[in-house]
Amino acid sequence: MPANALNTAQNEADKATAAAGAAAEHAERSFAEAASAAKASFADAAKRLEKNLVDSFDTLRAQSRTYTDTAGQQLEDAQKYVSERVRERPITATLAGLGVGVLLGLLLAGSRSHNK
Predict the structure, then answer these.
(1) Compositional bias of type Polar residues: which residue ranges (predicted)?
(2) Residue 31: CA count within 13 A, CB half-sphere
(3) Domain count of the chain?
């Protein structure tokens, strides 16, 4: 084999090695850039999710406050209504309360006797 052919083969091998090294470096840079972009994208998605959750909890808190206020007002109205009816007819209210108490007592006593 002539020396010239060996030099040519050596030169080609050196070029191939250099090209492979450059390709590996390019792949590393591309991977690092992709990982960095994915990390930034994930961080942005996490921030958006956190903001949406905070907004949802604020909305829920405001709605529950409204419902609580409405329920409290309705409870006060019902209490006033019952108080007025009791003042108008105290004997009827007492008998109704006594009847409800007796019914509850019978129901509770009956359920205890069935459990034994």
Answers:
(1) 1-11
(2) 6
(3) 1
